[in-house]
Every structure is written in C-alpha cells, then in structure tokens.
Amino acid sequence: MKDPRPSQSLIQQEARLARWMLAPTFLVVISVVLFPLLWNVWMSFKPLTLEGLRGDGLLSPTWTLDNYRKVLWDPEFGSVLLTTLLYTTAGSLLSILLGLAAAMMVHRPFPGRSLVRGLLLSPYIAPVVAVTFTWSFLLDPQLGLVNALGLRLGLFTQPIPFLSQRWWNLHLWGVELRVPLALTWVTLFEGWRYFPFAFLFILARLQAIPQVLEWAARVDGATPLQRFRHVTLPQLLPVLSALFLFRFIWTFNKFDDIFLLTRGQAGTKVLTVKVYEWAFGEFDIGASSAAAMLLFGVLGVFLILYFRWMTRQGE
Question: In whole angstroms, what separates CA 167 from the centre of its chain?
C-alpha cells in the first residue's frame, strides 16, 4: 500500500520554495527598516558633522557618548519631550473622538449620506502644504478670517496671534487660566487633519455590529446613551485601541505639520523639530542621530506598555 504522506524530498522542495518566496520580503525589510536603523545607531556614536558625511569620519573606529550627553543635557530637552507627549496624546485622542463622532453621524441612512462621507475625507486627502497654508491664513492676526469675525462679533478686543503666541490668559468665572495658545491650535489641526483615518475604521466596525444587539437593547428599554455605552462602545474598543496605537506612533514622529504651521516656535517645538535643528541648523549629524534614537526608545517603551495592557485586557 502506498504511503499517503508526502516524501521527504517533496517537503524539502516546499520549504525551499517558501524560502524563495519570502526572500523578497526579507530583503525589503532589511533594506527599508533594519539597515537605516542600524546606520542611525552607528552615526549616533560618532563625532559626525554634516560635512563629515563625505569624509572618513563616518567609517572611523572612533566612538563617543558625547552625542547622547549633548541631547540629554540640553536645557530644552525636558520641555521638548513634555511638549511632544502632550501634543501626541491630545492629537491622537482628538482625532479618534472626532472620527467616532463623524462615524456615528453618518452611520444611519439619510439623504446625501454618500456626499457627506466623501466630504469628511477631504482633510486627510488634501495636500499638507495646502491645508497648513489655509489654517495659517485663517488664523493670521491681521488678515485672518477668525480674528476678523471675532472682532466684529465682540469676542476679541484685539487680534490674537494664534500660531505665534505661547500663552494666553483666559478668564473664566473669576479664575485666570494660562492656556498654551499655539500648542492648542496645532493640536486642533492634528485632530482635524487626521480624524478621517479614524472615521473610516470606526464606520466599518459600526456597520459590522449585528443589529440584533441594538434591537434587544431597545426592547429592554435602553436609552440611546445606554445603548451606546453598553452595546456599541464595547464592540468598538478593539478598533479604538488599535487606532490610538497607530495615531500615537505617527503623531509622535510628525514633523511637517508643526514645522509648516509654527516652525516649532511659541512652545510647539517637538522632538522631530529638534532633530531637524541639530541636523540642519547646527550641522551636528551625531547629535541628531542620538536624538532620533531616543525618540525611538520612547516609542519602544510605549509599545511595550501598550502590548502588556492589551494582553491583560485579552486575558
């Protein structure tokens, strides 16, 4: 009787074929991810300037920790790191909340729903240069529409430089609050610009929730708020947590939005802007690489904490 199991040679051929099919993926990962990371680690331990990239300094056996000392002992490093964490956390949460609100708004059928869905995607697909220019023009203290309307309606007594003033004293019910003005507006821009990404994922999950669950809650007499809290929200939690992970990583590495809006001035300087300043302002490639590695380390700590939390939630 013939043995139904495949021969050893066939198994070896399949394994060899699998290795050949995976080889392009491994090459792409090594070329695009691993090699740049190792190269950046190498440069972070070198006394390297922008001019030295063409010389022998890059391949010299000289090692130094001065780059990390310069970054960690920089007077701005603590405040820049705190600003980065605040901007990243607030921007990520705001984009998810706006995406959730937009998804709930267009979840039910109504006339013109397809058109509204398309319009909601416009902030995400518009060129970043165009939208940052538009926001800068709207918020301009002299020519901006926001200040013009605020002055005409009596909301402002004088033009407010939204993107160039660090602090704004706000009086509410006799209490004076200091609001980080420029940081608040770049955070609002971050939430507005990237909420369509969250909107698409949340809407897809909303449409996959079985209607029977909501019908059963209606029969039991649950209010709309109770239905959202006890039926809809638990179904959305896996998507929301994954969205927060993605948005946190991408916002933490964001450079172009803040650079185009404020150039990192008025209390909006984040780590990516600091990396740019060291590299192309001081021409210190070593310190810039060290700052990039510290940025990578902070993200690594966040990912470890996030996956531990996810594991506990799954258990």
Answer: 24
pLDDT band at 2 (very low <50, low <70, confident <90, very high): low
Q: Please answer whether residues 270 and 80 qualify as being in contact, where contact means their C-beta atoms are separated by less than 8 angstroms.
A: yes
Backbone angles phi, psi at 179, to 5 degrees: -105, 130
DSSP H helices, 73-127, are 77-106, 113-120, 122-125
Backbone phi, psi, residue 26, to 5°: -60, -40
104 CA to centre of own chain: 23
Instruction: Choose the CATH number for 76-252 among 1.10.3720.10, 3.30.70.240, 3.40.50.720, 3.60.20.10.
Output: 1.10.3720.10
pLDDT digits (tens, 9 = 90+) for 58-75: 666 778 888 899 899 999
Report the C-alpha gap between 217 and 246 in whole angstroms: 32
Question: What is the rounded distance in angstroms from the CA atom of residue 80 to the CA atom of residue 265?
Answer: 11
Distance separating alpha carbons of residues 107 and 201, to the nearest angstrom = 12
